[in-house]
Design a protein that fits this description.
Layout (H helix, E strand, L loop, with lengths): L1 E7 L2 E7 L13 E2 L3 E7 L5 E10 L23 E7 L6 E7 L1 E4 L2 E13 L4 E7 L1 H13 L14 E5 L9 E2 L9 E2 L5 E9 L8
Parallel strand pairs: 4-14, 10-13, 11-14
Antiparallel strand pairs: 1-2, 2-6, 3-8, 4-7, 5-6, 5-9, 8-9, 9-10, 11-12
Length: 208
Amino acid sequence: MKKMTVTKTLFVMALIHFTGKALAAETTPMIPGKETVEITGTAPVGTHLDILAIYVPDKSLANTPNCRFEEDRARMNGSDMVLTIKTLPGVDGLYSLKLPLQGQRKNCPYVFSTAYYTVQSKSVTENLKLLSTEQVREYGDFERSTGSEVTEIRSFAEIKNMYCDFQTDEMGLCEIDGSLPSVMYHLPSTAHQVEFNIKDLSQKPQED
């Protein structure tokens, strides 16, 4: 396995090559696009905030020569591309993460598919799964095809605040609206800004 990292400002492109016997050829990189979802808010100083985003070829061109790369046959994640975005809150607790919605790999356009937003400190590790609009649609279609009740996936923009137990000496849990975070949230595939504050449990408003 060989890992190549390309850094540009806060972006780190994680390109993983895999083959059972020998190292695969160099992977053609994906260049992130300029249209983004910007996640801003506050978090305790020292908290690590990471987003691991997965991109897939645009559906309309996925099976065309433009989106066929020989080296992908030996890659564990096939044609999917992964972008990791990292930041730390400033001394004032403010942070900003910009998640690109598209990418370009030579002549093949890529689109955002799924992201994993990780909040990590000494006592807290919380992962939120964020689905693009297309992924939400496909998830609903799959549930309908199996005769299951379609899961209502809440918009990430509705959350605003997540409270975590940063003071514990054990594993600190997080909660959103009084409950553990949901399995997944919807992150619309259009440029917009989202406010998401990560606060200590002691800052949670007292219920009447």
